[in-house]
């Protein structure tokens, strides 16, 4: 097991819907261990597989001194009651923004051995379960912000030191050709 490089917003893997896990093998257990170690090192409350470049439906969490993981998670119930709070993400280091989330959720999935698992979460755990499950669908929490907050978030992201602009491959002359 090892600490992996965490991918930042802008990496296409974060915008790709992940594949379900079909084989509960040694490779999956290594992935869970890598995710756990990378999350604890960061440190963060949760880490989803695409954040270390693996497009599989797996995440780990570390909330209220409980470290765990969930494979092929589905949010099966979410409360109408909401919670306020700031949310952040290891793929957007240093940034956090207020986001309403369901106050209580139940997530179902499997552990790394293929046994069914159900997790009931409230407060931080509920927020974490929603945030990490979103990651597996290519959704980043900033997508869900209210329009005003999102505007501020986009500005902060543009100015963030980790957000290096992509390399431009086409020359301006080539682009003129396309426009004409
Ligand atoms: Zn995240």
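Q: What amino acid sequence fits the structure above?
A:
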């Amino acid at each position: 097991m090892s600490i992996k490089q965490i991918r930042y917003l802008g990496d296409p893997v974060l915008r790709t819907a992940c594949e379900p896990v079909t084989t509960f093998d040694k490779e999956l257990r290594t992935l869970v261990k890598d995710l756990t170690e990378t999350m604890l090192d960061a440190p963060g409350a949760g880490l989803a597989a695409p954040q270390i470049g693996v497009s599989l439906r797996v995440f780990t969490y570390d909330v209220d001194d409980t470290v765990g993981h969930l494979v092929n998670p589905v949010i099966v119930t979410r409360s109408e009651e909401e919670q306020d709070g700031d949310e952040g993400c290891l793929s957007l280091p240093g940034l956090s923004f207020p986001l309403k989330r369901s106050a209580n959720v139940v997530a179902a999935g499997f552990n790394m051995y293929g046994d069914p698992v159900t997790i009931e979460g409230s407060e931080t755990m509920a927020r974490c379960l929603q945030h990490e499950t979103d990651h597996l669908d290519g959704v980043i929490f900033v997508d869900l912000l209210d329009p005003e907050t999102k505007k501020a978030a986009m500005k902060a992201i543009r100015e963030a030191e980790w957000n290096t602009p992509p390399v431009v491959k086409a020359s301006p002359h080539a682009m003129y050709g396309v426009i004409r």
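Q: And what stands out in the fold?
A: The chain is about 30% helix and 25% strand.
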